[in-house]
Write a structure and sequence with these properties.
The protein is an alpha/beta fold. It has 17 helices and 21 strands. The model has no long low-confidence stretch (mean pLDDT 94).
């Protein structure tokens, strides 16, 4: 199945989308990568979904990527004697470590690390920012606050601390158990929540031991401030606008999203725009006009992927949500303005041989009558560099590693194909020609561009380019002359 768009779609699986039939329907509607949310479901549930995805992959004959999204530490208040209380603007309210049920004057906050990091004037946001507290006085086990924005506070509501970097690891003990489970299960991507600094990514990399690529979720102001170093440490980025929109003024989100997407593109690292993209479709078969514009904006920016969360996990219309996202992408990418915007935001001059090779591949493809660019890549590096160029012609990412093919399913424009292993560039050219015809990208005697890194199997060595005919009768080096 060939997609007729470049941006990829990530669909979260959940109670509404756990069966083989539903997962296949989501794939056929346009989902390229499936997200397993480790915040919900036992390991047995996650394993069943993983098995179903692999069954769909086998039956459709196309690689499918899987993203396991770790929960991260969850900061919550304790319980209340009455279940909930009303806080009034201007009143005092105390947070402390006392396990006694809360009331209208105080509540437990069972996170000593927060009290240790607070400063006078720091903000504490409760229940997705609906309640805003300002710290007036604090100690190692308490914070006396003034209620700046009141509302209903109830049992175990979440707490955000936007003003300070918390001395908390991004990986809780639950996350470490989940990480080991999904790495052994065999996922391509690991989503890291609560990333505040590059050290959080380094810790996860030590634990994964190369078994999965790391995607940092940018959902805290500290991660925005440290973005360059976090990007360098990561394999991909998710702009998680949910928590980020709680901890930052909402008007800050659009420019931040644009800056982060641009930086990821320049670094040739995939970037997902996520959270509440088609939120109304949890309950409605059609989205709002504003949601459609939001999805379109991410596509115009050149994001690698857009993501569905609750819409496909627990919504009443999961297939319709994927289909809507697919249709929006098709319409946007057929708009001449799309190419103008994407081309204008292409990164500036690069410095390496690989940069020159992929830039030349794009220019040749767009100048001559080239039907497709084929990237032969064991590690995925060559394919990611070509995708960064956002060429006008299709890209086939060819690799003998099924893990690489699945991982690259997340990247803009890449049609991933598992091919036999080769050790000579001529073999790569022959396989590229045959694959281009078989997959419906070219006809015999059409022209294609082939890029690769020689010697094969050595990451980061993109150093060769050839324009070749799509001749399915080409002779492989091992064939008799």
């Amino acid at each position: 199945m060939r997609r007729l768009r470049n941006v990829k779609i990530v669909a979260t699986l959940g109670p509404a989308s756990s069966s083989y039939s539903m997962i296949r329907a989501l794939y056929e509607a346009g989902a390229d990568v499936f997200r397993l949310n480790m915040s919900h479901g036992e390991h047995e549930d996650i394993q069943k979904r993983h098995i179903a995805i692999r069954e769909v992959e086998k039956d459709v004959g196309r690689p499918i990527g899987i993203l396991a999204d770790l929960q991260g530490p969850k900061l919550r208040v304790g319980t209340f004697a009455n279940g909930s209380e009303e806080l009034e603007e201007g009143q005092s309210f105390r947070l402390d470590l006392d396990e006694a049920p809360g009331d209208a004057m105080r509540a437990q906050l069972p996170h000593r690390e927060i009290f240790e990091a607070l400063e006078k004037g720091s903000s504490l946001l409760v229940n997705d920012g609906k309640i805003r507290l300002k710290v007036k006085e604090h100690g190692p086990d308490f914070a006396n606050c003034m209620v700046m924005v009141g509302g209903t506070i109830s049992d175990r509501k979440g707490v955000n601390v936007p003003d300070v970097v918390l001395p908390l690891a991004a990986l809780s003990e639950k996350d470490k158990r989940d990480l080991e489970f999904v790495c052994e299960l065999g996922v391509e991507w690991l989503g890291l929540s609560f990333v505040q600094r590059p050290e959080d990514v380094h810790e996860a990399r030590e634990l994964t031991k190369g078994r999965a690529a790391l995607m940092s979720k940018i959902e805290k102001p500290s991660a925005v401030r440290e973005f360059e170093s976090i990007l360098e440490a990561s394999d991909a980025i998710m702009v998680a606008r949910g928590d980020l929109g709680v901890e930052l003024p909402v008007q800050n989100l659009p420019p931040i999203q644009k800056r982060l997407v641009r930086k990821c593109r320049n670094a040739a690292k995939p970037v997902i725009v996520a959270t509440q993209m088609l939120e109304s479709m949890v309950e409605s078969p059609i989205p709002t006009r504003a949601e459609v514009s939001d999805v379109a904006a991410a596509i115009y920016e050149g994001a690698d992927a857009v993501m569905l969360s609750a819409e496909s996990a627990v919504g009443s219309y999961p297939v319709e949500a994927v289909s809507t996202m697919n249709n929006v992408a098709l319409e946007v990418e057929s708009d001449p303005t799309y190419r103008t915007v994407v081309d204008a935001t292409r990164g500036g001059p690069k410095q390496s041989v690989a940069d020159g090779i992929v830039s030349a591949a794009r220019e040749i493809a767009e100048t001559a009558n080239i039907k497709v660019i084929c990237c032969y890549s064991q590690s995925g590096t060559t394919a990611l560099l070509v995708a960064r160029e956002r060429p006008h012609v299709p890209i086939i990412a060819m690799t003998s590693q099924i893990g690489t093919a699945r991982r690259l399913c997340l990247s803009w424009g890449l049609h991933c194909v598992k091919t036999p292993e080769v050790d000579r560039f001529k073999s790569a050219v022959v396989n590229s020609a045959r694959t281009s015809i078989k997959e419906g990208f070219a006809e015999p005697q059409d022209q294609l561009v082939v890029t690769a890194g020689v010697p094969f199997g050595k990451p980061g060595t993109t150093n060769i380019l050839r324009v070749a005919p799509c001749d399915e009768n080409l002779i492989l080096p091992a064939d008799p002359e």
